[in-house]
Amino acid sequence: MKKYNDLEYLRLSKGQKFLYRLVSFFAAIPVALKNGCLGIGRFFKNLAAAIGRELADIVLTFKNGDWKTRLSFLIMGFGSMARGQVLRGLLFLLFEAVFIFYMIMGGGHWMSLLSSLGRIGPHDEYSAVLDAYTKVYGDNSFKILLYGVLTIFFIIALVYTWRLNIKQNKIAEDILRSGKKLRSGKEDLKSMVDDQFHKTLLALPLTGIILFTVMPIIFMVLVAFTNYDGSHDGYNNALFTWVGLKNFRTMLTWSGSGVNYSATFGEILTWTLIWAFFATFTNYFLGMFVAMMINKKGIYLKKLWRTVLVLTIAIPQFISLLYVSKMFAKNGIVNGLLLDLGWITQAIDFMGSQAHNALLPRVMVILINIWVGIPYLMLITTGILMNIPADLYESSRIDGANAWQQYTKITLPYMLFITGPYLLTSFTNNINNFNVIYLLTGGAPTNAAASGAAGSVGYTDLLITWLFKITMGAESQYYMASVIGILVFLVVAIISLVVYNVLPSIKNEEDFQ
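Request: output the structure for the sequence above.
Response:
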């Protein structure tokens, strides 16, 4: 593809510029993939080099350190306590003692069962007391996986703390050799609220993120490699086990007959992306248009119009969406009014409860989402519009620009520059917009061709609502829901990375300063 310089690019027509940018985008994808692969390779290379440096430093510390340092390799904190840093040493020793206690009391048991996720499932045993067979519960696969992941995190934390303990001994030795004095426990406490205060503040949130965000995500990812479902719940019915990549092959392999998860996933993914696109940009441009109309000179009662729109935000979305779904039901207010007026002779199935045509329900959820989303965009764009310099519009009017030219050359570029990251975030949120779809249509109408897959797939189902349906009912295919969750993450991550790197607000931060 021919590369144009800036002057040659400016001479192109609008259509040629668009085509050039489009071709350049697709031409850059192989290069981006290549650079991504090279970046991953460099990451692992640097990681291996860093691990090598750490191991070398550990060996040298043990070789060159005194007996206090060497004993600290086994008894964490011993060197610090022996050198007078009692508080620091006690903290290291306490962590090691808690770890040993945990591993003895249960951690070692969970780790030993993690590879099999349990050996003895629920079974019937004869009870001599009752003179009958009773159900006896054995291992719990769910607990084994959960506590196994927790134990792995605990082991990683121990390794990190042990390494920090070794570093502290080396630093202490270097300080004493230089003739300086080590910090006391009182000075350590003072440091925690002074020069190290940022670490003190971040410690609790970081722990919370690891326990309540990172661990659940890893647990969810691991479920995708098991057969965890309603009939293999890990305790009451049967144990679940590792199945490797079987679930991913089921989801992504095309089959000519029977249940075709691949075709179902592709169809729902296509609709999900179409929905996210229209849900994002219809709200964006219409919200901007409403804000421009309200802010226009000569418009009276501006505060009233803003208040009326903001009222839709004040009402919980759960209530408003359920109310709207009832309004547009076959026996709802809208159909009743149209029938009374004689405009229709038969109730229209707006929400697709019985329809076989997917177009009308899909259009309806997009239109209703506009009503829900415009107030947010109106508020966001109002503040941005007020910050566009008025002299830009005045200069353009002097040069003969009409309203459309002012919008396309001044307002829209400025808005896209400022709100580019928000648009990306909004698009991502709409991919996972559970409320609007589930509360309006519940995924209806049913897609008979795709309902052989788990979850009773509907034409308006998004990936997130399909995931929810898969976890409900007797089958409760949690493993397949986990696979869908991972694939949704990959789709969102790829789109986010590509779009984020081409946003003008990221590449040319100084343009509108």
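DSSP finds 20 helices and two strands in the chain.
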